[in-house]
UniProtKB/TrEMBL annotation:
Keywords: Membrane, Transmembrane, Transmembrane helix. The chain crosses the membrane at residues 461-479. It comes from Hericium alpestre. The keyword Membrane applies. InterPro entries: Metal_Hydrolase (IPR032466), Metallo-hydrolase_Enzymes (IPR052349). One of its GO terms (molecular function) is hydrolase activity, acting on carbon-nitrogen (but not peptide) bonds, in cyclic amidines. This is Amidohydrolase 3 domain-containing protein.
Length: 489
């Protein structure tokens, strides 16, 4: 897939995602993949919709996008877009082209939503071997000009083959091999699938030590329950990170991140327990990731007659952020047995979050927007300049963002994210999507496809023709009446 190359990109009359003055508009100039200049503008009320056009300028391809003061620009988001369901794994070897096609579709749809960085969990085990990894590496290469696909080799199945096993089995050996593959950035597991607590704890140790040895990020689907009697394993993880001197072993300019997905057990924490968790995390590079579409669907599977609704069972993102804990919001399964509903769009989680967390305040809206953009990047280990930690775009930032053409504020982007978007990576337009609208009450013909307009025209012409035939018939009848009055022959 080729990006639309550009030497210079100019985005005119765009609003930034800041709450201090959402009526200001700006011109952004981008070159060599970074924002080179930002100029404040007066809002305009010119024609809608925005225009995108190109022209050559000094032998460079020059791209200009004029938003007419009606669009909002956000940092790019990320998406975990390639997680495989256990149910389909047995047939992967027979249908590897289908696996590739599904992965490609998810990447393309994510790009169109505004995603330029995504973490792809690819399962490695005795059933699928390294087939999923091969597909992920192929997609990573194909889309390298348009987005960054961060590959996480992931053990969804147990590392220990039975309850009595003291040593990991073949799943771990395969994972070791996969973790050493060029192009892999992350190694992870789901410790909750092990048969007993001590094996879950050893699972964490094996993965964390493997990540340290291979200089990779680590990703755990951890504490995925709402059982008050189940001890939170996050404390075992944090203790081990300190004993391994995790921060000191990481490169200074790019510390290795430990990402914790789900964490539904923490929804049972009270305020004191959240404070304790914050203190235990301290300065360790750890981030939580709420996965509400999956969490709420899977954690509501308890018994009973369902007269009493199950708990929400997903991390309360605005609350967690208010406690100073780094937290992101993400989609992790798409159209599989774990999450049959929803789309790949991370921004689609924002209105869901407003409902789940029952908070539509400006602070909550800003937190939700950060959780699918800047905080999401942090959670997967992408370090950003200090100035880029906010939602606003600054001079010198990477020119990676998504334009929401029909949203003009943080609040509108969170409460009702628009469909029409343009995705920009490294100063190049890499994807866009547009919505075609038509309403009979507004205009019965304008906006319709050409063939529909022709049908309308033909319908109208047929009525005229029918009327003309009736008139002619009447004239003929009247003439005959004059020539042959009633009663004459």
């Amino acid at each position: 897939m080729q990006a639309k190359d550009s030497g210079i990109l100019i985005i005119r009359n765009v609003r930034q995602a800041v709450n201090d003055n959402q009526h200001k508009t700006y011109d952004l100039y981008c070159a060599s993949g970074v924002v080179t200049a930002i100029y404040e503008k007066e809002p305009t009320d010119d024609a809608w919709p925005p225009r995108i056009f190109k022209e050559h300028l000094e032998s460079l391809l020059y791209t200009q996008i004029d938003l007419k003061g009606k669009g909002i620009i956000l940092p790019s988001t990320f998406q975990e877009a390639l997680e495989v369901t256990t149910k389909a794994k047995a047939d992967f070897g027979k249908h590897i082209d289908d696996v590739y096609a599904r992965g490609r579709r998810l990447v393309v749809e994510s790009l169109e939503c505004g995603v330029t960085v995504m973490r792809a969990h690819v399962e490695v085990d005795r059933t699928v071997q390294l087939r999923c990894l091969d597909v992920a590496l192929r997609l990573k290469e194909e889309f390298h000009a348009c987005c960054d696909i961060q590959i996480s080799v992931f053990a969804q199945d147990p590392l220990f083959e039975d309850t009595d096993a003291e040593e990991p089995g073949s799943n771990y050996r395969l994972l070791e091999d996969a973790a050493g593959t060029s192009g892999v950035s992350v190694v992870g597991s789901a410790p909750y699938v092990e048969s007993k607590l001590v094996q879950s704890q050893e699972n964490i140790s094996l993965i964390l030590r493997l990540a340290a040895r291979k200089q990779l990020h680590a990703d755990f689907h951890l504490d995925y329950n709402v059982d008050a009697s189940s001890p939170p394993l996050i404390y075992d993880l944090l203790d081990l990170m300190r004993s391994l001197r995790w921060t000191q072993q990481s490169p200074k300019d790019e510390p290795r991140m430990v990402t914790i997905g789900h964490g539904t057990r923490y929804t049972l924490f009270n305020g004191a327990e959240w404070n304790q968790l914050k203190e235990c995390i301290g300065d360790l590079p750890v981030a939580l990731v709420a996965l509400p579409q999956s969490d709420m669907y899977m954690m509501g599977k308890g018994g009973g007659d369902r007269a009493v609704l199950p708990p929400r069972a997903t991390l309360p993102v605005p609350f967690v952020a208010s406690r100073g804990i780094r937290v992101a919001l993400s989609v992790n399964n798409v159209d599989n047995a774990f999450t049959p509903q929803g789309s790949v769009d991370p921004l689609g989680l924002c209105p869901l979050g407003v409902t789940v967390y029952q908070d539509a305040s400006e602070t909550a809206c800003t937190t939700l927007l950060k959780s699918v953009s800047t905080e999401a990047k942090y959670a997967i280990g992408l370090r950003q300049p200090a100035a880029s930690k906010s939602l606003s775009i600054s001079q010198g930032d990477p020119a990676d963002f998504v334009i929401l053409h029909e949203n003009s504020s943080v609040r509108s982007a969170v409460l009702n994210p628009c469909y029409t978007r343009t995705t920009i990576r490294a100063g190049r337009v890499v994807a866009y999507r547009r919505a075609e609208r038509w309403s009979a009450i507004a205009d019965p013909t304008k906006g319709r496809p050409l063939y529909r307009r022709l049908l309308v025209f033909m319908d109208e012409m047929s009525l005229w023709c029918a009327g003309f035939v009736l008139v002619v018939a009447y004239v003929v009848w009247a003439a005959r009446q004059e020539l042959h009055p009633a009663g004459t022959k």
